């Protein structure tokens, strides 16, 4: 067995403690998918009632309309003082099952409660 020098050991320790690079989302993010609109409304209400001042709804593809419906339902029925702070739209490249790439529209809606 060979002994490692202290400098080499430190380098190896740094590599093992380094986290893989992934997207980081905050705790106040709701990802909108195929579930009913009320599920996302309730998720947002839960975040607001737990002390959050803002919530971000993210959706892509066919779920975009569900995200917009969720925000509108929140604003018009549940939290009348809710403000739509920002809207960000974009496109992501997604690789399909057969290896082909396609573009998918995305939306990010940030709402705040005063």
Q: If classified by CATH, what would the architecture be?
A: 2-Layer Sandwich
Supply the helix-strand structural class. Answer: alpha+beta
Radius of gyration: 21 Å
Any idea of the CATH topology? Translation Initiation Factor IF3
Text of the CATH class? Alpha Beta
Number-wise, the strands total: 4
| Overall average pLDDT | 85
What is the CATH H-level superfamily?
Answer: Alba-like domain
| Count of the separate structural domains | 1
Report the order of strands and helices.
HEHEHEE
**Share of helix, binned:** 25-40%
User: How far apart are the termini?
Assistant: 64 Å
| Coarse morphology | elongated
Strand order in the largest sheet: 1-2-4-3
Q: What are the low-pLDDT stretches, counting only 5+ consecutive residues below 50?
A: 8-22
Largest sheet: 4 strands, mixed
